[in-house]
Amino acid sequence: MPETDIEISHALDLSKDLPPEVEEEARKQGEDPDRVCLMVQELRDMIYERGECKPHRMDDDYLIKFLRARFWKVENSYKLLCRYYKFREDNLDLHVDVHPIQLKCIGEDDVVSVTPYRDQNGRRNIYYKVGNWRPGKIPLVELFRGTLVLLEIGSLEPRTQVLGAVGIFDLEGLSLNHAWHMTPSVAQKIISLMVTCMPIKITSIHIVNQNWTFDAIYQIFKSFLSERMKEKLFIHGNDYKSLHQHIDPAHLPEEYGGTMKSFTYQPWFDSLSKNETIIKELEQLGYLFDAEEFEE
Fold first, then answer.
1. Which residues sit opposite 44 in a β-bridge?
2. Which of 24, 124, 156, 195 has the fewest Cβ atoms surrounding its Cβ within 10 A?
């Protein structure tokens, strides 16, 4: 598929109306339009009756994203909701009084990025270029804050709620300096963010360009991975043809054997930082925005 046939947009699609093909996939996942209201109310009643967490929102749109994240299984959705708020309570430094605008250095250094187009399955692709991360410049907590903001924003998009997202970790340049930061607690926090605690489905994680340092780090992660998690993890090395079995080259940047050009973070930053819906939601979650930041 030529690049011109792929929609490129640095804006979230916040429309509640799903495209027909996404609507069909939603049905396969258990989303029955005739029962949505009943299942949302069932989840809401469960929250009130059990009292194990106090969501900052209880409206239909908010609860639906948790139901979609767990394929409309109400009990599992409730457990996810509780894990989400427990994670927030245990990691106040990741979201309370955090200025998302000030995290733009992560994008400037091309450490974390999201392509402005979707893969052949309609999913968002999140890229982590770990070798570009300089711990002396960007503390690890900033990477966690940036990832959390990114996932919070992504979970607002109905299409992504249904189809999920894909994580691609490019480990070229991974060094011992990076490895020193990968403690068991850090590994557990990464898995919480990417797999167990957020209302967004990471359908697969792909590792490319890893070196011997990865082997040591992976030993730390393995103990926290369930068999189901391991089934979603694919390690490709420098074999991009292996990666292409999962993501069509037409939907990959040229540096991974694809046909798409690379995009900078700036258009995403400009678009999202001016979206009042996104800013309002992030403010409700404890994030801060100052007028002066938008003028920089």
1. none
2. 24
